[in-house]
Write a structure and sequence with these properties.
Layout (H helix, E strand, L loop, with lengths): L18 E4 L4 E4 L3 H8 L5 E6 L1 H9 L1 H8 L3 E4 L2 H9 L10 H14 L3 E6 L4 H12 L4 E6 L8 H11 L3 E5 L4 H9 L7 E4 L3 H5 L8 H5 L3 H8 L1 H25 L3 H20 L1 H14 L5 E7 L5 E7 L6 H8 L20 H8 L7 H6 L4 E3 L6 H5 L14 E3 L1 H4 L7 H14 L2 H17 L5
Parallel strand pairs: 3-4, 3-8, 5-6, 5-7, 7-8, 11-12
Antiparallel strand pairs: 1-2, 9-10
Length: about 450
């Protein structure tokens, strides 16, 4: 799924990879494990890839040409613990640190297995050739079809383009540093026949053994920058000690600028309602837990991955209303759905327990989501959070419902719930996302009591 924003130019990431827009960075980043990212990058199609670390964002803030190059890239990958910290300032949690030092070797290994060829352009004289030798030793069968350094051999761009195209390379790695490598690709990627082009920074130095990597334990803690600073203090002190602080301070300012009085009031409402409900409904929670345990085997609570604001997945909490094997049986029951469209609902669902039917009738099963509200995964009012498989099947217009936090209640929930088809639900959610106000939220909260008592569409 792809989320476009006014700050991301022509970003068009691979459809197989999830993307998250990060307000504090004003860019969309791939949010996927390394292996999944590598497989997607090597899938059919042409794409230009950029890695973004804290230094890259500092350069981007000062260099309009580099900013244009990044915004026009097809795929932007998060690189480093600083970027992860900046994402968290906007409430965005990324799955993995997709830095070039880890991803490039994995990419090359997979490319070798697929019989793809690689061209190395950049770094100091001799480094690309040495990196190529190391890569072929580590990956038997890998075809490195050419190397050029990033200095004298790269001065004639037309000659470089001609040499790369004559080599028949499937993948071109460009290691000229930031911003030069991405500016070079911005100018020339469309002239290359290669399907995949990447700006890889210091990757050739690591591959050639010119620069040693931090111990694995330090890397796991996100401290590789400390290792590099210790190895090259004069060259990297300004970048890491001053640059990282500058980057995080700017990210914090941008994240703070996204906070409005409306968002503060809405969050205050969420905490007040959820906190009060948790206190007042404690006896009901206890009684429901006991009834569930007496009725059927299994845990009291049911955790299920749902998709929240901007496509961020989170574990949604409910009282268990089904038998333990409910998820395994879901695929066999899809044809019996009472509801048109993508989202599955069935009145006669055989997976529902006796207690489950009662707590669903009065929406008691949804009450544990007040803890999701307190954790900031959800809001009291908003679209219902969908399953990842449902979001993957969404038409483009339906992705608009992910622009706001999902809620326990909302327009769809007070208007008939499961009796409402998918297309009409999307219309309702898009209308709410476009025109929501604090007054509307209060009205919907009060309307929820009537919807719960009537039980309309609850099954």
């Amino acid at each position: 799924m792809t989320f476009h924003s006014p700050f991301t130019g022509t970003l068009a990431p691979i459809q197989a990879l999830p993307v998250k827009y990060v307000p504090s960075l004003r860019v969309s980043l791939i949010d996927a494990p390394l292996d999944q990212t590598v497989d997607a990058l090597l899938s059919p199609g042409r794409r230009r890839v950029a890695f973004m670390n804290a230094h890259c964002f500092n350069v981007m803030a000062q260099d309009p040409a580099y900013r244009a190059a990044i915004y026009s890239a097809d795929v932007v990958l998060p690189d480093g613990s600083g970027v992860a910290m900046a994402c968290k300032m906007s409430g965005v949690r990324l799955t993995a640190n997709l830095n070039g030092t880890d991803l490039v070797p994995a990419l090359i290994a997979k490319a070798a297995a697929q019989g793809k060829s690689v061209y190395l352009l950049g770094a100091k004289p001799g480094v690309a050739a040495k990196a190529a030798l190391e890569l072929t030793l580590r990956n038997p069968g890998l075809r490195v079809v050419g190397t050029l350094d990033g200095y004298g051999q790269a001065r004639d761009e037309d000659a470089v383009i001609e040499d790369i195209n004559a080599s028949g390379a499937d993948i071109v790695l460009v290691a000229m540093g930031v911003p030069m490598q991405d500016l070079w690709l911005h100018r020339n990627a469309h002239r290359l026949n290669a399907n995949l082009t990447l700006g890889v920074g210091a990757a050739f130095d690591f591959l050639a053994g010119q620069v040693s990597r931090a111990p694995r334990g330090l890397r796991r803690l996100g401290g590789e920058w400390l290792w590099r600073l210790a190895m090259e203090p004069r060259r990297l002190a300004k970048r890491y000690l001053i640059g990282n602080v500058t980057f995080l301070a700017r990210s914090a300012r941008q994240a703070a600028s996204q906070i409005t009085m409306a968002s503060v009031l809405r969050r205050t409402l969420d905490v007040a309602v959820a906190g009060t409900a948790a206190f007042l409904l404690a006896p009901l929670f206890a009684a429901t837990a006991i009834a569930i345990k007496l009725d059927s085997r299994g845990p009291v609570f049911f955790r299920q991955t749902r998709v929240g604001q901007d496509g961020r997945e989170f574990p949604m909490l409910k009282f268990r209303s089904m038998h333990q094997d409910a998820e395994a049986r879901r695929a066999d029951l899809l044809a019996s759905s009472d509801r048109d469209g993508i989202c599955f609902k069935s009145k006669s669902d055989p997976r529902i327990t006796r207690v489950g039917r009662f707590i669903r009738r009065f929406s008691i099963d949804e009450l544990p989501q007040i803890f999701n509200v307190l954790r900031t995964d959800m809001s009291i009012v908003g679209p219902r959070p969908a399953l990842p498989c449902e979001v993957a099947a969404y038409p483009a217009r339906a992705l608009g419902r992910l622009s706001v936090k999902p809620g326990i209640t909302g327009v769809w929930q007070v208007s008939g719930r499961a009796n409402i088809g998918f297309d009409r639900m999307i219309d309702m959610d898009l209308a709410y996302a476009k025109s929501r106000t604090l007054l509307l939220d209060l009205i919907l909260i009060f309307m929820t009591f009537r919807a719960v008592l009537s039980g309309r569409g609850a099954h």
